[in-house]
Design a protein that fits this description.
The complex is a heterodimer of chains A (about 290) and B (about 260). With about 290 residues, chain A is mostly helical. Chain A is built from twelve helices and no strands. In chain A, helix 10 (about 210-230) packs antiparallel against helix 12 (about 250-285) and helix 11 (about 240-250) runs antiparallel to helix 12. Chain B has about 260 residues and is an all-alpha fold. In chain B, helix 3 (about 50-85) packs parallel to helix 6 (about 120-145), helix 3 (about 50-85) crosses helix 9 and helix 6 (about 120-145) packs antiparallel against helix 8. The two termini of chain B are about 15 Å apart. The relative contact order of chain B is 0.12. Classes of the chains: A mainly alpha (about 290), B mainly alpha (about 260). Chains A and B meet through helix 1, helix 5, helix 6, helix 10 and helix 11 of A and helix 1, helix 4, helix 5, helix 8 and helix 9 of B.
Chain lengths: ~290, ~260
Amino acid sequence: MRSTLPIATVVLAVIAVWCVAAVLLNAPLQRDAYANAGRTDYSTQDLAVDSLNMDRPKLPGPHQVVVELYKLVFATPPTSKRSLVYHGLITLEETLVGFLIGAALGVGLAVLIVSVRWLDRSLTPWLVASQTIPIIALAPMIVVILYQFNITGIAPKAAIAAYLSFFPITVGMVKGFRSPDPLQLDLMRTYSATRVQTFVKLRAPASAPFFFASMKIGAAAALVGSVVAEVTKSEDGGLGARLLAGSYYGQTVQIWAALFAAAALSAALVGLVGLIARVTERRMGAHP
Amino acid sequence: MNPRRLADLLPPLAFGIAVLALWEAGVRLLGVPVIILPPPSAVAARFATSIPTLAADFWQTIKGVLAGYIVGCASGFAVAVLIDRSPFLKRGLLPLGNLVSALPIVGIAPIMVMWFGFDWPSKAAVVVVMTFFPMLVNTVAGLSSAGAMERDLMKTYAADYWETLRALRLPAALPFVFNALKINTTLAMIGAIVAEFFGTPIVGMGFRISTEVGHLGIDMVWATIVVAAVTGSLFYAFVAAVERRVTFWHASYRVKEA
């Protein structure tokens, strides 16, 4: 791998900056702690080491987050309410359900927009405008409305995940279905292909790269949606609920652990889509 | 406005009005309670009576949005220009930047609230982190988009690195930079509003939404969403208008001859 060394260097640099920042941010707190304990004989090294190992630091040291992650992922039984696996699975379930609904809706709407002319003219400007709207502002309200209808459990959160993932997918797929160039469309016409045939044999295959690109965006957006939804309805757990609980009780290490778990989940989802994309593209005859 | 553009505007306008009318009629005919879905007229009435509150929320949120947007975009751009000279750093930072753009960055909101307090600087900090990486990735891509022919031409002019950057590569990167600026308008609004869910003084659009949802004041929530949507769209439209002015030469603005 040509870029392993550069990436490793950058990651190491990030960790180094993190350590320095943690010491600088926590040192004042630690000095107060020393003062309270009546300790005056500490060296700079003591200060640095203790700043990286505080109970409620402003910024926990990287190793504290790793230890906390290990503790909450592997050392806690996955049925416990403290386990990140427990909360991660809740989030993953909402994200996947929401993402699948969002993807189906998004692709379906794109098909309609591409094939029905008046829908295209009247709907597309709204879709573009909707991209500029902070959709997430709707999330808390949707959760509450669905609760009014006695729709509880994962459904309201999956709805928000679907809602957030469906716009980028629609926009990407419309672009993808329109990506064949006029020459190819003309060729289909000379074959006297029907509109359906043109769609199945030309537009759909041509949209594959756009499909996977928008699936990646959609998967990431679905996760953001379920995390934000969990913040607004935190009784049922999930990584977003852990974030909120951590911020209520000042448990910084717990926040960071939940954040890293969410990041890992998102990276895994996007990576999975990327893997499927690569396999499919190879099947379709792309040369890597 | 010429008649062509007016004709282009008509179908979406008609569609929007139809949706509003259906919404109003549906809510009234089916007797949907206001706490579930208020009719547009109720939202408009609520909007008209609470303009001072909405304005205060708007100013509180927009401070965080603008400060974060400017700092995030400027630093992303600066870092991109700096690492552009080092292929090593580029190879290391770009995959990381792509990874980070897929992460749920809004999750850092509680941490930023803890570091920078409840007021708008913590919201600006979330926005900085959210806008930085799209800008970085796009600018780096843009800086390498100038063609080999043009670079060779600059070389024959004996232009040095900075002259090439100023006269060729930065202008060629502008469409990418504006793309990031446009993406970031939405991200900035989202970042600031979600950060306000995690703690804020008793003002701000995110705060208003989360508390009014708690009181079941859904018409106020919709009024705030209208403000957020209009703000987001105007912000985007402003950046797009600047883009049109600055990169008028780009192929996507060519008008087809009728």
